[in-house]
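User: Thanks for the earlier help. One more: HD domain-containing protein. Can you show the sequence and predicted structure together?

Assistant: Of course, both are below.
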Amino acid sequence: MYKFKLSRQGLASYLYFLFSSLWIVLTDILLARGNLELAFNHSLKGLLFAAITSYLLYFWIEKSYGAKLKVQQERDEAIETYTKLLEQHGLPQLLIDPSSGQILQANEAAANYYGWDKEKICSLKISDLNTLPEEQIFVEMALARAQHRNHFKFLHRRADGEIRDVEVYSHPVKLNGRSLLYSIIIDVSEQKLNRFAFERSNQLLKSLVAAIRGMMRSHDKQGIADAVTRALVEEGKYAMAWIGEVPNRSYMPIEMLSKWGDTHNYVENIKITWDSTETGEGPTGKAIKLGKPQTVSDINIDPSYRTWRQEALKSGFRSVASLPLFESGRVAAVLNIYSHQPNAFDGEEIYYLEALAADLSRALVNIESISKYERIDAERLAAISRSQEALLEAVGALSETIEVRDPYTAGHQRRVAWLAVEIGKQLGLNEDRLKSLHIAGILHDIGKISIPAEILSKPGRLSKIEFELIKEHPKVGEEILRKVSFDWPIATIVGQHHERLDGTGYPRGVAGENILEEARILAVADVMEAMISHRPYRPGLSLEEAILELENGIDSKYDGNVVKSCIKIMKEGGYYFLVMAATPIKK
């Protein structure tokens, strides 16, 4: 049997009509004093009024209740959206009450990252994670809540006590009438270590270039030796460097030719030989006897350095490298380099220092036999060549580091460099500018070292915050490369390769002729290579589609002459070359 069921608003209207009708009928009968016809007429009008008002009441309640229900549904949907956003995102995310600092929600990624389960994290306050003083944390949350700042750099503590470098993106959200902070946490500890490694590589590279330039300008043995030791200390940031000449007799002390950075007269206060006694068993003596570089990773514990340990620690030295310098096949001198840090000399560092030692050996040998003018010309040419080779080697190493972190675009930088140089040839650039294009192309994405690897390798569409991080890579690359003394404006070219003629590019919105020609060339080469290359998340465009895309941007985004040159190259075989170069070989 069908059961009639009233809604809440229907029940309220029905009860109103029922009781008001009863009231009207009873009062009309009493007031009519036995005149039933009069009572009937009055009751009829009253009942009609009750029916109309109950009907209006129904719709008023329906509208009010519906609006309230809609608000509640929207609130529930918002909560569900944020809950899904928290749970499904691969990065650690927290929902925080800024008034108390209480963590209200955490996703699985946050639990895994911090080392607590979600229930435990939600019992903590943000001050239990953030190493800042609590009052400073509330200041930072107030800035995020007012949207004066949304990007922060903190040190966060994990369950095991480990302190990690993190970047936090925090934005205010409204849930259930409460103003909360929705925070995404990105661990940048690895990036900071990578940045330190790059800065160290830059320092080393600068010291090599400065040493070569110093040797070019020097006219005698002393000048060459001083140029090298000075460059290693001032540009390479080593604690001290000295060069000692090897005496004919092994028991005789090594004779100092040059030193830089020794504020405690360490070299004068010690005795070093190359015989079999204790004074000949250190890294300098072994380098002479073995003819190979020698290192002491930690002076404080290495038994071979016990003879000089006290003086070395007094001077603040913790590690040392000794590199032999050859003349006619024998070790004629030794380059000794000291650091305030233990384990300062890894394989890469020794590789470059060996190259410098080889150059220094040749310079010291040649200085005695070449005439002044011939020597200057010969050393200048040799040094320029070596400097350029060193730069190109470093460039290749840096490029490969980026490709290891971004496997989806492996080889992209080399292919962009090739296409940029070919465009430059079409436009009539000289060899010097073509070389700058090649280096800039190889390094144009070096700034991606600052971007978390999970974002670089993400197969799907990037979020707004993730894309904002990506857009910072030209600026970061420019900052890194500005520390290296190139003969070309490499840093500026890299910093501008995502700028566009109409000013809509990034990171600075540079427009028109303010964009270097090399950067305009690199921009087109970068876009073309990216469009035709396959990615795991989308196929590459055909040549016709890529050409149409470039042509649509002529004189608005891209330089017209550059686009025409690029299209000519692609039609004449460049497309086939790039596609084949980007296609993995099946084993």
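User: Great, one quick takeaway?

Assistant: The first helix runs from residue 8 to 32.
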